[in-house]
């Protein structure tokens, strides 16, 4: 028999919201910084990731892009990240945010970033059976014209693995302001790209940003979205449209200082019937992993086994892959659920 926490960790999972650089492990991060002579803000792995809040974290996140320069750096991080997530949380499929603008600012071009990442992820798919897709993310620090230019690059260099666009980081005013990038989303939609956006994340964000991302940007999925619970009309809108939410429990304890308990906004979103999925966001920086998000995050929010399995299945429904892959994943998940249900110790 296994405990409920072990059960949560062992459930098969997808991950729809993780940033490529954050799937690095700390040892590789320090090694690559040394290789390229990048001065980090510290060298002690114990304190390197002590961030005060979201803005503080984002400074470190931007700097982390500096250590990835050679094709073998990207490919290595891609492969290791899958290996680690399979071991830590039974990862079966994953979608990655890659920010071409960060690398372009450092003289590394779009294909120089995407091709070695895809090569590393393909190798990991062969070794671990974990499929993947990539979302090209708009960096909100840059202006709207730069976002359109980024989408033009995605369209000019079609790669079957790059299936959509998103937006992350904050504007120079430290706001979300999703509609600032409406033109980039319109262009992406016209070329059949999927759309998502980071909105409604912290106490400084609004439920209106969630509504705008759905109504103005046409997003099929949203990252975070926690402020939605402030407005029942937006909850209704998201339910009607079948919007999936890629939530990240542990990150909210760092970026927003929220407690993981039954009063958490993610629990309220689940109870409101929204299509909630669970991811790590920035595993290295938040010292989390996919297993921990379920084992500690869902557990602390009082989520039961039936709901945890539904959340895992939501992670298939909300994915940007084709129906053949989704059907295969659902069959695999149901078989693993049955095996785990059979060994789950009855509640004490
Ligand atoms: Zn994120």
UniProtKB/TrEMBL annotation:
Pfam families: A_deaminase. InterPro entries: A_deaminase_dom, Ado/ade_deaminase, Metal_Hydrolase. Keywords: Hydrolase, Metal-binding, Zinc. Coiled coil: none annotated. Signal peptide: none annotated. Belongs to the metallo-dependent hydrolases superfamily. Adenosine and AMP deaminases family. PANTHER family: ADENINE DEAMINASE. This is Adenosine deaminase. The gene is add.
